[in-house]
Write a structure and sequence with these properties.
It is a single chain. The protein is α/β, with parallel strands linked by helices. It has a single domain, classed as Aldolase class I (TIM Barrel). 47% of the residues lie in helices and 12% in strands. The chain is built from twelve helices and eight strands. Helix 8 links the parallel strand 7 and strand 8. Helix 9 packs antiparallel against helix 10 and helix 10 runs antiparallel to helix 12. The chain starts with 9 loop residues before the first strand and ends with a helix.
Length: 309
Amino acid sequence: MKDIQKYQGVIPAFYACYDRNGEISPAAVRQLTEYFVQKGVKGVYVGGSSGECIYQGVAERKLLLENVMEAARGRLTVIAHVACNNTRDSRDLARHAESLGVDAIASIPPIYFRLPDHAIAKYWNDISDAAPNTDFIIYNIPQLAGVALTIPLLKEMLKNPNVVGVKNSSMPVQDIQMFKDEGTRGGRPFVVFNGPDEQFISGLMMGADGGIGGTYGVMPELFVKLWELFHAGKLVEARQLQYDVDNIIYALCATKCNMYASIKEVLRRREGIDLGGVRPPLAAYTEGDDAPVVHAVDLIDQAMKRWIG
């Protein structure tokens, strides 16, 4: 029987960590990992959208994951997103992730070419086969990948005993219920993660076992608090805090730069963590983005005082 308790909780998506030359910074990776340990989150999701994975090479992604694992030292659940836009590199990253002892690997479907379900299933199963002793999590993000996880495709993937869950970043919370129902059919242990940060408690209400999100990193305490309020049955308070969190997210998205550039600036200002910029062609942070970032910092500070004390 699979142990899925290690996936239940708040799992921030790990950010790309660069030095002044735009190269992966092992020191920054280790600092960010320790930051998440100290904030009390369940784990980290490494190498996904927030990690700017599609703009990084295989060697860079390996270097980043190696430093996360060395810094985490078993104190965090680590899920490594290993998808590249070809099977060979994805399998290489999967083998590497398993060699490091990650808890799970994850993958989006192939992007650009629109592939039939059977080709997507083969891609995912080929990746899983390269890490035969590691859990596999399907990453459903149709708004970016251009293809959505369907129930027939999920049924096909459930034939693979390593498939333990879905990271669901589609907007309809109904999808969480559908994937959860199908995945747990017959008593199988199966996890579904809420992806859209703006509807964290809605996802939990529909049966999500936890959340993986790109904005958790600038306010992990608030998402941990949301988790606690929901599971304590304090739904009115949870809704109020979700509204506060959403307003912070809207401020982070009000910049002209890429959202992850504004997130990194917030981390630099509030936590003294310098993760560098974002990799082109993502839009870089400029002085013109100061006002919404200052507003986001202020909203986070206010929410921390209100909810954390």
